[in-house]
Write a structure and sequence with these properties.
Layout: E1 3-10, H1 17-25, E2 43-49, E3 52-58, H2 68-82, E4 86-92, H3 99-108, E5 115-120, H4 129-139, E6 144-147, H5 156-166, H6 184-198, H7 204-207, E7 209-220, E8 229-240, H8 243-250, H9 255-271, E9 275-284, H10 292-298
Parallel strand pairs: 1-3, 1-4, 4-5, 5-6, 8-9
Antiparallel strand pairs: 2-3, 7-8
The protein binds guanosine-5'-triphosphate and magnesium ion (MG).
Length: about 300
């Protein structure tokens, strides 16, 4: 029988969890950015091989904060552990171990799951590798360590081998041709959000959520051979908290929102087998990050 298991990816914000998920899956499954708290959902990425199937569960960066929004994200990371067979802790060697490491290690002590640690970002010239090795040796001596670069893929082969070894035996949960289970609507909203985050700074990435208002498949006639092609027309709202943030996202003469649209369309056209046309609108939703019903819908 082959292997089949769920692997929770846990670690402080920006440690490279989503980048690693994408590298392991060989596909862009989860959006990434240099801004902490990019991931807000439990995102599944699936690796299918002859030796079995691993379902990776990406989680929001784990950190202490009493703000409601952050509490939701932390609860999501914690609950993901409960549905996992193996934990993959991603440590960021580019930053000295912080209070987040203590928090993650304390959280991991609440489970008896097999755990592995990726010492990530070894491609950078200066790292705190030795300090992480000492910390893990002291606090979690049974954890195997894997120096890797999620960005370049260095070291991820041995890590994947160890994850397959640690996973239980069983039948696959998903068809072998799936690499994620995300609905198209969610993937589109996420890619739009990624492109908007990449073009804004400070509070704007955190104050933003993207919601798909409408999606419609249309037949376009035309093209050189007069073939009919299908297109997906998508209207999405980029919601921010303040008028000033709206102004930033729209940009002078609408230039920034146009760039976001074109860049998102370019990427979406590579992912989907039909053309995507985006219509992006920016809206102000004051204090959305303190509205429980919305947070329950968005952060899951
Ligand atoms: N140099 C280098 N940068 C990396 C590596 N892995 C991730 N990064 C960068 O680190 C930043 C954060 O990466 P993400 O994958 O979004 O991190 P994350 O842990 O998912 O972050 P959150 O979702 O916000 O918790 C991005 O700028 C990545 O390009 C790596 O191996 N080497
Ligand atoms: Mg992430």
């Amino acid at each position: 029988m082959s292997k089949s298991g769920f692997v929770a990816i846990i670690g402080r914000p920006s440690s490279g969890k989503s980048t690693l998920l994408n590298t392991l899956c060989g596909q862009k499954v989860s959006i990434t950015s240099s801004v902490p708290q990019t991931t807000r959902n439990k995102i599944r990425g699936i690796v299918n091989e002859d030796r079995g199937q691993l379902v990776f569960l990406d989680t929001p960066g784990y950190h202490r904060s009493e703000r409601k929004f952050n509490r939701y994200l932390r609860d999501l990371a914690e609950s993901t552990l409960q549905e996992s067979d193996v934990v993959l802790y991603v440590a960021d060697l580019s930053r000295a171990p912080g209070v987040e490491e203590d928090d993650v290690l304390t959280l991991l002590q609440t489970t008896t799951l097999p755990r592995l640690c990726a010492l990530n970002k070894i491609d950078l010239p200066q790292t705190h590798e030795q300090r992480y090795r000492e910390l893990l040796h002291r606090k979690s001596p049974a954890t195997s360590l894997f120096p890797i670069s999620a960005l370049t893929g260095t070291g991820t082969g041995p890590l994947l081998d160890a994850l397959f070894s640690a996973a239980p035996q069983g039948e696959p949960f998903y068809d072998a041709d799936y690499y994620t289970d995300q609905a198209p609507e969610f993937r589109i909203a996420e890619i739009v959000r990624e492109k908007a985050i990449a073009r804004t700074q400070e509070e704007v990435p955190h104050a933003l959520y993207v919601e798909i208002a409408d999606m419609e498949m249309r037949e376009d006639s035309g093209g050189d051979d007069s073939r009919n092609e299908s297109s997906l027309w998508v209207r999405a709202f980029l919601n921010v908290e303040r008028e000033s943030q709206k102004g930033i996202l729209v940009g002078k003469q609408g230039r920034r929102i146009r760039e976001i649209r074109l860049e998102a369309q370019r990427e979406l056209n590579q992912i989907f087998p039909f053309r995507i046309h985006l219509d992006l609108r920016v809206k102000v939703q004051p204090k959305w990050r303190s509205r429980d019903p919305l947070l329950r819908r968005l952060l899951k």
